[in-house]
Amino acid sequence: MTAFQASLLTCDDEPRPGPLGDTVHRTPLAHRAWIDLRPGWFTGADGLFEHLLETVPWRAERRHMYDRVVNVPRLLAFYGENDPLPHPALNEALRTLNTHYMNEPGWPFRTAGLCLYRDGRDSVAWHGDTLGRGATEDTMVAILSLGTPRTLALRPRDDHRRPIRRTLGHGDLLVMGGTCQRTWEHAVPKTTRPTGPRISVQFRPRGVR
Question: Is the sign of the CA dihedral 79, 83, 85, 91 positive or negative?
Fold first, then answer.
């Protein structure tokens, strides 16, 4: 796994989320979907990244795909509603998100799923979080990105010709809302460029996977 180059400016900062409010930029999408982007949401992101990388009980998974079982191309961890999160700053992030989005359909955020992309070969294929409530209801998924920047691509389910791409950097926040999970798909594509590790923290409401 290629090493992540930490920032020399933030390595001593205590990890914590910044404000949301008018720092969040919303992009309306087709079919009443939307995405919010808040660059640089976390200060002290270096320390949080290193703490999660070293202490989270990362696990490899295998899944059925067509007629064979394949390795999932990333490492995973999941924290349910009653599980203590792996760093106090993630509890603060959860509270900040729930305060900011309290009037949006699909709140509050309750769980945290973590993915470790070890290098550019790790990825996630096109999908929507449609297991559970996301298949029929407006809901939200909030993604905190830590480590090496990677592309998050989005496309409408009914039109694959022009995907939208957003590069998520170290400490950035992206939130998908409205009908996004059932009318759009998202992916983290593989890349052949030398790429260091990235951790994605996905906050979801109850019953959304």
Answer: positive
